[in-house]
Amino acid sequence: MMQEEDSMKSFLDLASTRRSIRKFEEIDVPESDIEYFIHAAVSAPSGCNSQCWKFIAIKDRNIIKQIELTVIKKIESILEIKGDELSQDYISSKRKMVSFFANAPVVIAVFMTKADFYDSIFISALKGHGYDDEGIMNIFANYDILSIGAAIQNMLLAIHEKGYGACWMNEPAIAGKEINEILGVPLEQKFISIIPVGVPAYTPKNKRMKKIDEVFRIL
Ligand SMILES: Cc1cc2nc3c(=O)[nH]c(=O)nc-3n(C[C@H](O)[C@H](O)[C@H](O)COP(=O)(O)O)c2cc1C
């Protein structure tokens, strides 16, 4: 029992000290560490055990640059509709916020593949009620995306455990299709997130936390 309590305490410590890191030292992340992060990711639970994920770790600076420029171009083209309304400060800070991943020594791209359904009888009954695959996934709280979230969180904790920092980034998904193209990934595999990983170049400030009783109760 005592041992269990100890290991729970150290896990809570790991989980509660993990923070998003957006600036990295120019220090390499060895492949053995990257493989460790991926092992943690693929150990996550997934709806119907679909393991509906694919990961690509990118160290090639040219490919990272290409993704960076593509994301920036996409963001700029969307903002064009705002004309002169936007300040240069806003535009340049937006540019930075969507592309800081490019300064990390390694960037992990996460894709979602098609998830399975366990119970084909129930699924065909739902289809009889007019639901398509997307509608059914919606009923079940999009467990494909939830599964990806579980995998990414496992990965973030493994990264933190090894003394690295990372940031789970979804904003670059604005250029998801273009990222698929750059990486040669078929469009059936949906780009979800990009995660820059490296040695943190700063210590993050404390973040505001909701009080436990705002988000939790026991009945
Ligand atoms: C699904 C998801 C998407 C996120 N996307 C971005 C992003 O595009 N850019 C970014 O800078 N941070 C992103 N974050 C990081 C959050 O801003 C961060 O987790 C939150 O502010 C809490 O800070 P912490 O991670 O240090 O605890 C994302 C986090 C999650 C869970």
Care to give the gist of this entry?
The protein is of the alpha+beta class and 219 residues long. 48% of the residues lie in helices and 11% in strands.
Detailed description of the structure:
- There is one protein chain.
- It contains 9 helices and 4 strands.
- The chain is α+β, with helices and mostly antiparallel strands and 219 residues long.
- The chain has a single domain, classed as 3-Layer(aba) Sandwich (NADH Oxidase).
- It has a 4-stranded antiparallel sheet with strand order 1-2-4-3.
- Helix 3 runs antiparallel to helix 8.
- The radius of gyration is 20 Å and the shape is globular.
- It starts with a helix and ends with a helix.
Can you give keywords for this protein?
single chain, 219 residues, alpha+beta, NADH Oxidase, 4 strands, globular
Distance between the ends: 25 Å
Strand content: 5-15%
Topology order in helix (H) and strand (E) letters: HHEHHEHHHEHEH
Known CATH architecture: 3-Layer(aba) Sandwich
Strand order of the largest sheet: 1-2-4-3
Number of strands: 4
Bound molecules: flavin mononucleotide
- The assembly state of the depicted protein chains is single chain
The chain-level mean pLDDT equals 95
Q: Which structural category do the helix and sheet elements fall into?
A: alpha+beta
Number of helices: 9
